[in-house]
Each structure stands twice: as structure tokens, then as C-alpha cells.
Amino acid sequence: MSAVFLGVRHHSPACARLVERTVEELRPAHVLIEGPAEMNARLDELLLGHELPVAVFSHYRDEERAATSWAPLCDYSPEWVALRAGRAAGAEVRFIDLPAWHPAFAERTNRYADAEVRYADATERLCRHFAVDSSDALWDRLFEVEPDDGLAERLDAYFVLVRGDARADAGDRAREAYMAQWVRAAVAMAGDRPVLVVTGGFHQPALRALADSREGAGAGEGGRRERDADGWPRVPAPPAGAMAGSFLVPYSFRQLDAFAGYQSGMPSPGYYQQVWESGPARAADGLLRAVVERLRERRFPVSTADLIAARGLAQGLTALRGHPYPARIDVLDGLAGALITDDLDRPLPWTSRGPLTAGSHPAVVEMVAACGGDRTGRLHPGTPVPPLVHDVAAQLAGLALDGGPEASYRLDLTDAADLERSRVFHRLRVLGIPGHGRTAGPEHGIDPVFTERWDPQSASGRESALVEAGAYGATLAAAAAVALTERTRNGAAEADALARTLFDAVLCGTDGLSEHLLGELAARVGELKIAGSLGEILSTALGLWRHDRVFGVAHGPLLAAVIDGATGRLLWLLEGARGAPGVDFARLRAVVAVRDAVLHAPQLLSVPRAAAAAIAWRISGDREAPMDLRGAAFGLHRALAQVPEAPGDPAGAVRAVATAGTDALGDWLAGLFALARDEVTGAVGNGGGGAESVIDVLDSLVCALPDDAFLSGLPALRQAFAFFPPRERDRIAGRLLERRGVRGSSRSLLRTTADPLLIARARDLEESVSRLLARYELGTTP
């Protein structure tokens, strides 16, 4: 006999009933199901007695590509019903689709993602013909609330119509060619007994054509004529060196709901579970009750009269639309009409597909939640799990961190045992495992905080998250390292993301970090484009490399690679910097970080000290560079030059810059003071007595300024001198008094009774009054 093809919509109760009835009637020799063929040897795991929904989670990772996908199953999934009913009927059941790691699934995180986007034109024409708003309402109108008589024929006509307007992409063509091989093999082995093929309706017309001919048998990788000894097509194996696998994970109705972002099959899984169990009439009554209960629990006013009105509206809409039973949209529209009296600023969400948008009406939010349901699946205790799950359990027990979901932990990071506990918690955090969250602790690498607090948080989805994290590695340390490596690869080299990754790597402990992660971090540092952000990374990494005694990364390879890459990149960025007038404090801090790296970690750097000094000298003389950066580069050169007679007289440089204006001088001084305050105060001996000459020159220049120029440049000058701490300001004030031969405390210049700007404005006002009096000869003789 030939094959019988059932095209279905994923998670459709009507299609599930059709599959169950067809299996009972045909008693087929083989039941072939769209699903991951690599699970065929493990189908017994699916039938262990789980509480649905569950999903087959598949992962793949190699040097070039990483991919994960889910194949979810609930009670009314046609694929699940075909598996269960086929086994019960004595048929040989097989999944026949390519493995989830296969390139045919590239960019697809859900195996059962419908091709609805590709046949949108056809469904749009049908929606107009049947006067419905969305493809979901169309599906309910044609299949879910209609009698089951003639259902198979209606489905065939529907899928032929929609597939006729769409061309499958290369991935779907490869999958269909591979599935056709299974169909031909099953027909050959079945003899005179039928073969039932259950796939998504989009694939059904193509599969029927491919299975009846030899076309496509050699098309692409999916069509190779390779058979195992048992006569079935060979399941492709992952490439050598790749990591791939599949495991069962718990799933939830929320994950299945289109209103939460799911893009396949039916929306509102809680409602359709009731349709599957009780039929559309009772499901409608149940939905009305569920919505009213949720609204009353949240103190939304719903009276008995409102409920009666909603039921009456739903029944009227059912009759008006010609539905034999109330459909989902009949109930929802009835509820909306009875309960929402104010204007809505957007269409009701069930008139389209996609997640709820922010600002949706509270009653609408509760309606959608009631439709979705809150069921979460549970795996049978005997379900195999990846090695990571066992490793995590062993580590938590060994470190006394298995105190239960309500336990809190206060950790002393200077204690070796607590530091290891901290690393375990951080590795779980990096992998996205819920359960505990850090509520206190160091925020960056040189934060002087040596304790952490971890408090319990919602552990919902922990079991699934642990299984899914097994895709990263067999041990917690290895999995966290791979997750961090992937984060650097996918982070587009943004500085803030890279800084977080670097600190997370420190918190997780570098013992388990791979060489690949070290290389990725160093490489991404070399791609950053903003000097200020890169300077923050360099400063933190250098501080940890020099001084860390808590996390154990001092003089470690992770930070060494980052320091080298960041210093070289910063010198390149700084030499090409251009910008408007003003002071970029983040960029100045980056120059300081370069200075510290060259002075304190020269053995790590690819750029010699002399080369860095030469770059600084070129920047200081570049007329197109920002003035603050030129001043900082001048100071950097003075700090790095290794001979006393190095070029660059600070006093002469100040005179030269002053010709560009007071604002430019203030910006230049801000850069200089950020790098070399000792050039003014004489605290360090670079330049010997030249430090006093800088103060002398500045004093002379400022005193010679006209009042207008002084007032205009005062903010920039004050900003520059803000780099000095109080003790150094006191020394400068003392020098100014000494130049004037004034004896007294220098603090008299530093502590005024009012804001200096206010004093300057008052002086300006007095001079204006004096000029006015003089104009009218009202002045008095002294």
C-alpha cells in the first residue's frame, strides 16, 4: 500500500483528533512523524510518563557556529498524539526530520516554526473571504469549531492552497528531501499495510510529490541515498569536533503562547487544552469563568450583570458569525464588549499575532493570561539529563549550598571556601540558572568590598535551564567559560558588555577559563572604538593585575592579554582622535590608564616604552587634536621620557598654548594636570625647577588678561585646577603669595566667603556703576 499523508497545524486539537482517529482506523505498519531523527533510539524517554508540556531541546556548537532549538509537545500536539497512538496500535514509530543541528535549521530556534510568513498572501485572501481578522481566527472558523466530518479533506485543500503560493527555502527543501527518503523506506518495508505520515501542513504537498517519485532523492545533503543496516535512512552525524545533543526539558504554556512571543502553531494553549479535553462549548464556558476569576482576584470590578452580558454577547457573536460552537474570539470579543467601557488606543491583540504590547488595557491582559494558562510540564524522575546537571548537584552539596530554595548565604571572599562558593554562584548566574541572586558584593574589579550576599529568588524554570545549560559543557566551570566566550563573540565588541564579561570571568574564577576565552577577550578589546570606555577596561584590568588578592587573578594570563590589547588599541585611537573644544574626562582617564600600564606592566606590552613616548609627543604637537588631549599627551610624554633632557619645556608650552585663547589654555591645562600635576607643584622631579616656572608663567598670563577675557576663560581654568587635591592647591596658593611678597596663610586664597563667580559678577557690576557715574560726572574725588 502507499503512504497516507496528514498535514497538520502544530498544537491543533482538531488535527490531534484527526491523527488519533486515523491511527485507529488504518492500523498502520509505520507512523512517521516530523521530529528530530536523532531521537529515534530514545523514543522510550518520551513515553516515560511526563506531565506535558515538554520539549526536545537540541544543541550544537563548533568553532564557527552555535545553535539551539526546541521541539515542544503538549497533550494536543498532533506529533505527540501520533507517537502515543502509534505505539498503542503496534505500529513502528519514527521521527523523520533532519537533526536540529543541521544547517537546514540555521537561524531557527523552534523546529515547529510554521511557514505562515511565507504563505501570508494566501491566508490574507482567505481572511478577507471569510471576514475574519487573523489567521488564527480563520483556523478556528475552518477547523476547530466545525464538525470533524470532512476534516481531512478540508485540511488537504487548505494546505495545497497555501503551499501553492509559497516557495520553500533551501532549508525546507533539504528537510523535505530527507523526510521523503523515510517515507519511501517505510513503504518498501510495510508490504500491504499502510504507512501514516504526520507532518506540518506546509510540507505535506511537497512530501506527497517527492514520495511518489525519485525526484529529490539526491538533492543536497538531506537527500543522500544512505541507509543503515535496518533499511532506514542514515541519521546525519555532527561534524568531527562538534558538540551536539538532545535532551528533554520541561516546557510551559507560557512558552507555547503566541502572546508571549511563540511563533508556531496555536496561541492561547490553556484554552485549547480545554478544547482538547472537553470540546469547544465547555472550553468557552471555562474561559469566561477563568477571566472573571482572574479579574476579581486583581480587584477589577466585575459584576454578575457583566458576566451575563459577556455571555450574551459571546452567544450573539457566535450566531452572527455562523459558528456552530463559540470560538475563542467570540468569547474574547464578548468579554471585551461587556467589560471595557473606555476607548482603546490599539486593536485587540487577538486580531493579529505577536506578543502583547506595553500599555495594554488591564482587562485585556487578564483575558490573554486566562487563555494562556499557567501549566508547567514536569519530567519523569528517570529522564536522562546531561552531565552538567549531576556536576552542579555534586558541587552544591559539596560546598553546603543545597540548603533549599529559602536559604540565604553571606560569603566572606577572603575565605577560600566562601570564595569557591561565590564562584559556583557566579557560574550559575552566567549560565542563566535561576534560584539565587546576588544582592550585595563588589561591583567592579577594584571595589574594596570583600563580602557577598546571595538571596533566594524565583526558581521557576530551573530544571529546564540546567538541562539547556548542558549545551555549554559537562562541568560547571567549563560551561561558564564557553558561555562567556560566546558572549564576547556575540557582543559586537561593545565596551560595557566586554567590561561586564571581563569582570564576570574574574568572578567565575579563571581556573576553568579556556584559552579560547582569553583570546576572544583580547581580540574584542582590540576592536573597541571609544577611547573612554576602553580606558575604563584597561584601568580595571590593570588594577586587578597589580593588586588583586581576593579573586586570585593578580599577574594572571586573562588580564595580561587584555592589558596588552587595550594599551595598543588606545594609543592608536588617541593618535587619530579629533573633536570639538572642551574636556573629555573619560578620554583623559584613558590616557592615565595608558601611562600606568607602560610604567607598571611594561613586560606585558607589545608597545615599547620609547614608542609610546614618541606617540605621545606626536599627539601633543598635532594641531588637529583636541586641546585637552594635546595637554594630556604632553604630560604622558614627560612621564614616559627616560632622560632628563627630554624635549618639551612645560613653561614654554603654556606660553605657546595661551596664544590660542583662555578657553583653549584651560582645556590644555586640564589634560596636563590629569597626567602631570607634579609639573606645577614640584612634587615629582621630572623637570626639576621647571615646575615653579610653570606657576610663574600661569600667574603672569592670568594677571595680564583683560577682565572680559578672564571672566570668559575662568570656568575652563577652574575646571583644570579641579584635578588638584586640597594639599596641592595649598602649595600653589603659597607660591602665589610668595611671588607677591605677601606673608600669611595660603588658605586665605582658597577659602572665600562666596562663590568666586559671584564675586567676579559683583566686581563687574561695580565697574559698570563706576563707568555710569563717570559718564554723568557724578563721581567723587578720593
Explain what this protein looks like in three dimensions.
The chain is an alpha/beta fold and 782 residues long. It is built from 33 helices and ten strands. The protein has a four-stranded parallel beta sheet with strand order 1-6-2-5, sandwiched between helices. Strand 3 (54-61) and strand 4 form a beta hairpin. Helix 20 packs parallel to helix 22 (557-575) and helix 29 (690-703) packs across helix 31. The radius of gyration is 37 Å and the shape is elongated. Residues 215-224 and 683-692 have low confidence and may be disordered.
Q: Categorize the overall geometry.
A: elongated
Q: Beta-strand percentage?
A: 5-15%
Mean pLDDT: 82
Label the structural class. alpha/beta
Instruction: Work out the number of β strands.
Output: 10
Number of helices: 33
Q: Compute the gyration radius: what is it?
A: 37 Å
Unreliable parts: 215-224, 683-692
Order of strands across the main sheet:
1-6-2-5
Helicity level, as a percent range?
40-55%
Biggest sheet record = 4 strands, parallel
Cα distance, first to last residue?
Answer: 126 Å
